[in-house]
């Protein structure tokens, strides 16, 4: 038996309070979206109750009909959005309406500037769902009772920092959201206006949306959009369904609607967003595609439905072959679901291939948003690797813009046997790295990889069209097979030969700090650089692993010297003359620290570095 008690006052999570403050100050130019958001929530609640009732029929409504009902009270100035969905208990209310459980919240809040105009696009991308009610309401009250539970609850707030919770009596299962409509929002108490809003924004909702009163009327077509013929669905209807299913505020970049027939039958209605979702890199790696069986919602959290590298997709997949009462546990390793998964992957990659070929500039926008995620498929999905190879794009030393691997291979120089790349954090700093000097001299293109995932797929994949991926910061730069441009000056054998005494001194002096010292083929302008040995971890990858505490010990690197650089020539001369050993020792460590700085590595002993620098400068300017 349900109970009642005195209201309990709680505070909103800080992020919610900030959101509400912006929402209350007219976030959206069209406030009508609040109704779309509340109807979407009500529809989702009905979907979840319907799913629970598949295995527990006693949880279904007595009349077996799920619905959303709008009720107006002009005198009281209230608009109620009610549903007979799954309902909420106290814990649900606190989590769903008092906090933002959605991943990406912290990053989102940090990105807010406090300037409403600047923050509008950001919050529009994030979506405020239930909180959009405060655009038109002075107070919002939620009365709800969860299916299978006796106790009902009331949540109430004016959106100004706190909310109250109390146990109440309620006979019906589901939720009623009661809006105390603001004085400047009277149009939302007009039945005709509500009819127009529902028809524009929520006609696609697959359960009846009714306007209560003396003569209750259904305002929407109440048929699943994906079941309608493609040529009967307008771009506007697709946009609104995308907003509904994705709880998003941007427009879809690409719409995919198809029906698979034959061995298995299913319908897919999927959207690729035009803006990056804020939870894209959350560790949960959840996708945004709902699975239905014959128009009945099953789950929106089935990991076997889509691979992680397509988690940016939003929409629905509706199967005709899965059993209607299938449990989420039974979906794991289900052969029908595997066939659907493979079909969806093939369709999505095929459509992306068309875009990449026919609309390169438009595809570049997609790549900017989701390319980092798509690259995960290169090591996660070997069967589709060749298709993904055709879709990946990179910055490179060839010139501005994005470049495909096929284009790179087509531009490879005579004698070039590998696809060269350099990995790091900032594209601009990569483009000026001393490691590129020898490659630039010979006109060899180098890919500039600045996503963390690049270190993993290059190591896993190994090669493309028989050409190995090779980091220019690892191993020797064997450029001898690639002829330099006509007229370019090559390193002289004499310059390399007479560095032997200097290299011997550097090896002895730096033996505890470096793995080896050798003459460089990759340097043309800089005096020194650090490289990883062929069998060691790439420098950038090791740095990332150390940052995330995956490894503790730092590997020793190889110090390469440019035998023709004026500084190195001066040191060769100094060694030949038997100069003061302390001066040479200082020079050796300064060269190493310079190489570290160029790699973005910290200097292990700043005090010693400063002392050596002071000593060298002092001697240089001594009279």
Walkthrough of the structure:
By secondary structure, this protein is of the alpha+beta class. It has 22 helices and 23 strands. The strands form four sheets. It has a nine-stranded mixed sheet with strand order 1-6-5-4-7-3-2-8-9. Strands 16-15-18-17-20-19 form a six-stranded mixed sheet. It has a five-stranded mixed sheet with strand order 10-11-14-12-13, with helices on both faces. Helix 9 (335-358) packs antiparallel against helix 10 (360-374). The protein is elongated and about 105 Å long.
Task: Set out the fold topology.
Blueprint: E1 8-11, H1 14-24, H2 33-55, E2 68-73, E3 78-83, H3 90-98, H4 105-111, H5 116-126, E4 137-145, E5 152-157, E6 162-168, E7 174-181, H6 191-201, E8 209-211, E9 217-218, H7 235-246, E10 252-260, E11 266-273, E12 288-293, E13 296-299, E14 314-319, H8 328-331, H9 335-358, H10 360-374, H11 377-380, H12 385-389, E15 394-396, E16 399-403, H13 405-410, E17 418-423, H14 427-431, H15 437-441, E18 446-449, H16 454-461, E19 463-464, E20 467-471, H17 493-497, H18 500-509, E21 514-519, E22 528-531, H19 539-547, E23 557-561, H20 566-576, H21 581-598, H22 606-620
Parallel strand pairs: 2-8, 12-14, 17-18, 17-20, 21-23
Antiparallel strand pairs: 1-6, 2-3, 3-7, 4-5, 4-7, 5-6, 8-9, 10-11, 11-14, 12-13, 15-16, 15-18, 19-20, 22-23
Helix pairs in contact: 9-10, 21-22
């Amino acid at each position: 038996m349900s109970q009642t008690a005195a209201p309990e006052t709680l505070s909103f999570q800080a992020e919610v309070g900030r959101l509400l403050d912006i929402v209350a100050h007219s976030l959206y130019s069209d406030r009508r979206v609040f109704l779309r958001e509340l109807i979407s929530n009500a529809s989702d609640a009905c979907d979840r109750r319907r799913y629970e009732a598949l295995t527990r029929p006693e949880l279904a409504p007595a009349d077996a009909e799920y619905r959303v009902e709008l009720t107006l009270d002009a005198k009281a100035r209230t608009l109620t959005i009610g549903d007979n969905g799954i309902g909420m208990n106290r814990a649900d209310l606190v989590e769903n309406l008092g906090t933002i459980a959605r991943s990406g919240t912290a990053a989102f809040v940090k990105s807010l500037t406090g300037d409403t105009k600047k923050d509008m696009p950001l919050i529009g991308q994030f979506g405020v769902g239930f909180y959009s009610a405060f655009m038109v309401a002075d107070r919002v009250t939620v009365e709800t009772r969860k299916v299978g539970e006796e106790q009902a609850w009331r949540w109430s707030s004016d959106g100004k920092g706190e909310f109250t919770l109390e146990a109440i009596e309620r006979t019906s299962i589901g939720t009623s959201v009661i809006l105390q409509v603001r004085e400047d929002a009277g149009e939302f108490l007009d039945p005709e206006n509500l009819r127009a809003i529902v028809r524009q924004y929520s006609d696609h909702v697959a359960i009846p949306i009714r306007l209560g009163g003396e003569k209750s009327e259904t305002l929407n077509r109440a048929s699943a959009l994906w079941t309608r013929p493609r040529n009967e669905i307008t771009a506007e209807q697709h946009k609104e369904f995308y907003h509904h299913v994705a709880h998003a505020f941007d427009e879809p970049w690409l719409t995919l609607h198809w029906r698979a027939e034959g061995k298995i039958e299913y319908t897919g209605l999927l959207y690729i967003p035009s803006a990056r979702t804020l939870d894209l890199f959350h560790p949960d790696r959840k996708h945004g595609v709902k699975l239905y069986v014959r128009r009945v919602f099953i789950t929106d959290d089935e990991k076997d439905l889509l691979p992680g590298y397509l988690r940016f997709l939003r929409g629905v997949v509706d199967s005709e072959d899965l059993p209607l009462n299938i449990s989420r546990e039974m979906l794991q390793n289900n052969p029908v679901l595997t066939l659907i998964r493979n079909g969806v992957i093939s369709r999505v990659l095929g459509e992306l291939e068309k875009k990449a070929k026919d609309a390169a500039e438009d595809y570049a926008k997609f790549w900017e948003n989701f390319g980092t995620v798509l690259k995960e498929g290169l090591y996660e999905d070997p069967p589709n690797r060749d298709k993904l190879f055709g879709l990946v794009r990179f910055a490179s030393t060839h010139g501005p813009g994005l470049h495909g691997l096929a284009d790179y291979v087509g531009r490879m120089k005579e004698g070039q046997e590998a696809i060269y790349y350099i990995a790091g954090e900032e594209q601009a700093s990569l483009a000026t790295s001393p490691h590129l000097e020898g490659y630039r001299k010979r006109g060899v293109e180098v890919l500039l990889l600045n996503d963390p995932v690049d270190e993993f797929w290059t190591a896993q994949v190994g090669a493309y069209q028989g050409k190995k991926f090779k980091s220019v910061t690892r191993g020797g730069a064997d450029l001898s097979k690639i002829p330099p441009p006509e007229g370019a000056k090559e390193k002289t054998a004499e310059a390399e030969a007479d560095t032997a005494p200097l290299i011997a001194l550097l090896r002895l002096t730096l033996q505890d700090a470096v793995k080896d010292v050798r003459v460089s083929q990759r340097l043309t302008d800089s005096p020194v650089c650090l490289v990883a040995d062929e069998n060691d971890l790439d420098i950038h990858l090791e740095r990332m692993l150390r940052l995330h505490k995956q490894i503790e010990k730092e590997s020793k690197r190889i110090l390469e010297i440019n035998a023709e650089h004026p500084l190195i020539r001066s040191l060769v001369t100094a060694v030949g003359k038997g100069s003061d050993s302390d001066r040479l020792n200082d020079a050796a460590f300064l060269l190493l620290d310079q190489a570290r700085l160029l790699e973005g590595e910290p200097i292990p002993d700043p005090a010693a570095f400063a002392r050596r620098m002071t000593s060298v400068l002092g001697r240089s300017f001594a009279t």
